Amino acid sequence: MVLEPAEEWQAMQPEVQATIKEVLGAGGGSEAEEEAEEESVAEGEGPPSICRRVCTLLKGAKYRQAVRLVLKAWEQLLDQAPFSMEGQEDDESEGTWPHEDRLLRVVEACFTGGPGGRARGWGLGEGRGWG
Fold first, then answer.
1. Is the model's pTM score more than 0.85?
2. Positions of the region Disordered (predicted)?
3. Residue 47 · residue 80 · CB < 8 Å
4. What tens digit of pLDDT does each residue of 62-114 get?
5. Alpha carbon 126 to chain centroid distance?
6. 54: Cα separation from own chain's centroid
7. Helix, strand, coil % (nearest 5) of the chain?
8. Which DSSP string do the residues of 77-109 spell out, in sequence order?
């Protein structure tokens, strides 16, 4: 049985959410562990490539690495969806360091292709634009 991306996301969301709280709260993990699992965004790397990497990490249950990659991308690509989360009502975190709920929505958008991600070719949805 093959699960749809939305179903996979529902199954992993509680663990991803707990990981986000841990990472944003700087809880757990030694500096050596964190450096070993640090993800980076290559110069010129765009949202489709980053979302592909996030999907791969999430499918491998490497939630901490996926969250850290999204945070790195957020720093560098704040003006590009899904990291900009354009059209989202969230004045509390607009232009600020990621709020937990907003970060969770970005990770979800990378994985499932929504909100609006499928039309842009992100996530596992239909794979359009992944060239």
1. no
2. 25-46
3. yes
4. 999 999 999 999 888 888 888 875 555 544 544 445 688 889 999 999 999 86
5. 18
6. 6
7. 55, 0, 45
8. -TTSTTTS-TT---GGGTTSSPPHHHHHHHHHH
